[in-house]
Specification:
272 residues; alpha+beta; Enolase-like, domain 1; 2 domains; 3-stranded antiparallel beta sheet
């Protein structure tokens, strides 16, 4: 005996949609359609994109911001930064990317975020949805955030990493790798400035943030007169990472404890 087939009907649309909502929905659809049409009518010139990427990566301003460093589980993690990702997206062309806060829950102290990157011409899209706790890691344990500005900055900082990965996911790997190599070469070359002057500038810059030359020499394992182009390039990356709060000066360049200080502390402990 044949049984009647029960068909599931889709949920009905809202009976009423506000005028503002309807306008925004229509605008969003039209914007996406227009972006696709324009991208297909004005396809990227790959040769021009490569030339522009090479020109950008030869600029010290970008090269100094092209990499990041931060500590994790007792080790230092490094890689291409969101600054480099955004510049490469601009050079490649027909790319949209961004970060959106989908939901904020003050009761649970968290925000639901979405980071995305979209190659409009090829219709290739990468996105990730993630939860950002309203907390900031610090010594002694995480600190709960309640100030609106602190929450915004915390969401933006966490989201920037996902935006970076989304952009790199849609760009050709060879395009990204060449950019990284060129930025590293630009850091080593130092804009044509002699190595001894770049070493002096690096020492002066670090002294400005409270890091002495002997701490740097201890980190590198050799005196400043024996530093190489590669050493100075890595120091520039460390300097930018410290400035941006990705790593602390103490983690990157531990303080030097002299033998007399160590002996004095030991004797003080024995007296106590």
């Amino acid at each position: 005996m044949n049984q009647p087939i029960e068909r599931m009907t889709p949920a009905a649309a809202p009976a009423r949609v506000g005028q503002g909502t309807a306008v925004e929905q229509s605008r969003a659809v039209a914007e996406v359609q227009a972006a696709i049409v324009v991208a297909q009518q004005c396809p990227r010139d790959i040769s021009a994109a490569i030339a522009e990427m090479r020109q950008s990566c030869q600029q010290p301003y970008l090269a100094e911001r092209a990499f990041y460093r931060f500590p994790r589980s007792g080790q230092t993690v490094s890689g291409p930064s969101v600054h480099l990702a955004r510049e490469l997206a601009r050079c490649w062309g027909n790319v949209q990317y961004g970060l959106a806060e989908l939901r904020r829950d003050d009761e649970y102290g968290e925000s639901e975020m979405q980071a995305y990157a979209w190659d409009v011409e090829k219709n290739t899209r990468n996105s990730s949805t993630f939860i950002v706790p309203h907390k900031r890691d610090q010594k002694g344990g995480p600190k709960q955030l309640t100030d609106m500005r602190d929450i915004y900055e915390n969401n933006a900082n966490n989201g920037a990493r996902r935006v970076r990965e989304a952009i790199f996911a849609i760009l050709p790997p060879w395009f990204v790798e060449e950019a990284k190599e060129l930025c590293t070469r630009t850091l080593r070359d130092g804009g044509g400035k002699p190595l001894n002057l770049r070493i002096a500038d690096a020492v002066k810059a670090f002294e400005g943030i409270g890091i002495t030359a002997d701490r740097i020499e201890t980190k590198l394992g050799r005196p400043s007169v024996k530093w190489t182009d590669h050493d100075v390039a890595q120091l520039l990356v460390s300097f930018r990472s410290i400035q941006q709060g990705e790593i602390t000066a103490e983690d990157e360049f531990p303080s030097v404890v002299s033998l007399s200080e160590l002996t004095g502390n030991t004797q003080a402990g024995e007296v106590a």
